[in-house]
Write a structure and sequence with these properties.
By secondary structure, the protein is an alpha/beta fold. The chain contains 19 helices and 19 strands. The protein folds into two domains: 238 residues, Rossmann fold; 188 residues, Rossmann fold. A nine-stranded mixed sheet has the order 3-4-11-5-10-9-6-8-7. Strands 12-17-16-13-15-14 form a six-stranded parallel sheet, sandwiched between helices. Strands 1-2 form a two-stranded antiparallel sheet. The radius of gyration is 24 Å and the shape is globular. The C terminus is likely disordered.
Length: 605
């Protein structure tokens, strides 16, 4: 089934007041039947305050929502919402153009969840047809002299860049060495959690960070970047003068990643009496402000909601001397650069230590680093400048002719899973995410949940918790789940729609094989996906894998007279109930050539 048909089905479900099949098993209402329509330019200043460009023709509250929102912000032109955004009720921007243009949300970032209803953060940039690229930093690009390169196991290498002549401290490669830098209670907590030794990104940045230097940390997903900067921030807080406002700020692109970082900060900060607060769109502002004002020393935030608080004078960052930009490339991809720059201006510049962490290091990001950091030391864990994936991930590409074949291959993939496995499926649009999760739930009779930018925060939390706990072993998601999330037990990632580019492909498949585990990543390609096939081939070759002949052909490196059928999986395994040949899988039924049997004993609906 094509994406257009999926979108039409999705819209018809909304119009009929349905919930796209996502309301089973006590799940709260996922959609508010009021699709936002008519973004023009997000907002733009006028003599009347804000001219909104939002016209809630679905009457999310009552009457013209745009007019209500406009009046509430002191303007009389709130009814201006034209039809340049979600045209004619179609899901997604018409022709991929319209009001969203990278700066369209202006200073308040699309109102960042007005009363928790509207929020751009964590939304799906690609679904709107706009993919803002980076601007150029105003300062010269920092020096990139190779100061040292250390070879690790399995071909991994750690390369340190900086100005010539820089003294680089030795790696902190054991917990005994870490105890010389950090309080014993932190080291004990790491040992209690089963960490045998510091991860490479931790070992090679801690010594630099305690010297007060700015750091650029580049490492694969699931490599321990969060604890790398949290421990440094805790030490900075312990040596800073007492202040009623936060002393450490961590910015991340999505709500889910903010919540994950907050949980880690609370866990490891509790023994040090370090309080952590968070703020993000899609949730009530009052409790978030209360949490910040009750003496939080660490603030984890998405740029839009934090920028709103700063514009309203509700948060003070004048004593914040430790800044972390986590998943920095993703924040810039999503158009948060203006908000980030505005926020950084509210922080002290002289005594501030800034850390930038990312899993990819595109050329466009390098000049911007010169604006955010001062003479940083760059630690790169991986394979130099080549974009590579985790070697613990088995990458399998299946070339299909149409959507029907994709569903057949998906059945085979799921039938090979065993009890306790979790599968994360990525779709390109919110419409296809809702449709596929509905198909799995209602047609295939499998417990599946969905997560995408249109869901209210409580529904996203419910979906994530159901997936983490195993109540729903399948989660269908847009790229909102592609960055930074650390969910244990994901054994397979399926790209129902291929990733937008190589960087996003690496991030998507990086949801599996985390913390030393193994995983499998499946990608479905259609005959027209030549460019995306090239991206995958490059990543596989950089990772040391040999692409299949049919993938090379699709990428233009061989004969093109193939018939787009991918390999059929083989294997034996027990399903969730009953035995199955070729992979018992979710339903444990019989199946040949990789187990084409149905898969509903994953959890019947």
């Amino acid at each position: 089934m094509s994406a257009n048909v999926m979108g039409a089905n999705y819209n018809s479900m909304l119009a009929g007041g349905q919930t796209a099949g996502m309301q089973q098993n006590g799940m709260p209402q996922q959609y508010n039947n009021g699709s936002i329509q008519g973004y023009t330019n997000g907002y733009h200043p006028s003599t009347n305050g804000y001219t909104n460009g939002i016209n809630g023709s679905k009457d999310v509250i009552t009457g013209s929502y745009g007019e209500k929102l406009g009046n509430s912000y002191g303007g009389n032109n709130g009814h201006n919402g034209g039809n340049n955004g979600f045209a004619g009720g179609n899901y997604g921007l018409s022709n991929g153009t319209g009001g969203l243009n990278g700066t369209s949300f202006g200073q308040n970032n699309g109102y960042d969840g007005y009363y928790g209803a509207f929020d751009y953060e964590g939304g799906d940039a690609y679904e709107y047809g706009f993919y803002p690229r980076y601007s150029q930093g105003s300062g010269p690009e920092y020096a990139q002299n190779n100061l040292q390169t250390t070879q690790l196991e399995e071909g991994l290498e750690v390369t340190v860049y900086g100005e010539a002549g820089e003294e680089i401290p030795a790696p902190v490669d054991s917990w005994d060495a870490a105890q010389t830098l950090f309080p014993p209670v932190l080291v004990q907590e790491c040992r209690r959690n089963g960490f045998e030794r510091p991860m490479p990104i931790q070992a090679n940045t801690w010594g630099i960070g305690v010297m007060g230097r700015d750091i650029i940390g580049v490492a694969k997903t699931g490599s321990g970047k969060t604890l790398a900067y949290l421990f440094l921030g805790f030490m900075r807080l312990s040596n800073a003068p007492r202040s009623p406002s936060p002393g450490m700020l961590i910015m991340a692109p999505t709500r889910e990643l903010v919540q994950q970082i907050e949980a880690e900060s609370v866990k490891f900060g509790r023994p040090l009496n370090v309080r952590t607060a968070s703020c993000y769109g899609g949730a009530s502002r009052g409790p978030q402000l209360g949490q910040i004002r009750r003496g939080a020393k660490v603030l984890v935030a998405t740029p839009g909601r934090l920028n709103d608080f700063l514009q309203a004078g509700q948060v003070n960052l004048s004593h914040c001397s430790f800044l972390v930009l986590d998943e920095a490339d993703r924040m810039l991809d999503l158009g948060f650069e203006p908000q980030i720059r505005t926020i950084i201006k509210c922080l002290p510049s002289e005594q501030r230590q800034t850390l930038l962490y990312t899993a990819t290091w595109p050329k466009e990001l390098r000049s911007l680093a010169s604006d955010f950091l001062k003479k940083p030391i760059h630690v790169h864990v991986g394979h130099g400048d080549h974009l590579a994936a985790n070697k613990d991930i088995t990458q399998i590409v299946l070339i299909t002719q149409n959507e029907q074949e994709k569903m057949e291959e998906l059945r085979r993939v799921l039938s090979q899973c065993q009890q306790g496995d979790r599968v994360l499926i990525f779709c390109e649009t919110k419409a296809s995410t809702a449709y596929l999760s509905q198909q799995l739930t209602q047609v295939e009779r499998v417990n599946a949940v969905a997560i995408h930018g249109d869901l209210a925060q409580n529904n996203r939390d419910w979906s994530l918790e159901s997936f983490k706990s195993g109540r729903a072993p399948i989660m269908v998601a847009t790229d909102v789940a592609g960055r930074g999330l650390d969910i244990k037990g994901i054994t397979a990632v399926v790209n129902w729609d291929p990733a937008h580019n190589a960087e996003d492909y690496v991030h998507r498949i990086g949801r599996t094989a985390r913390a030393g585990c193994k995983g499998v990543a499946y990608t479905f390609l259609l005959p027209g996906d030549t460019r995306k096939a090239k991206d995958i081939v490059n990543v596989m070759e950089n990772t040391g894998l040999q692409p299949a002949p049919e993938l090379l052909q699709l990428a233009g490196r061989g004969q093109r007279n193939f018939k787009g059928k991918g390999k059929k999986g083989k294997g034996k395994g027990k399903g969730f109930s009953g035995k199955g040949k070729g992979g018992g899988g979710f339903r444990g039924g019989k199946g040949k050539s990789g187990g084409a049997g149905r898969f509903d004993d994953l959890g019947r609906v």
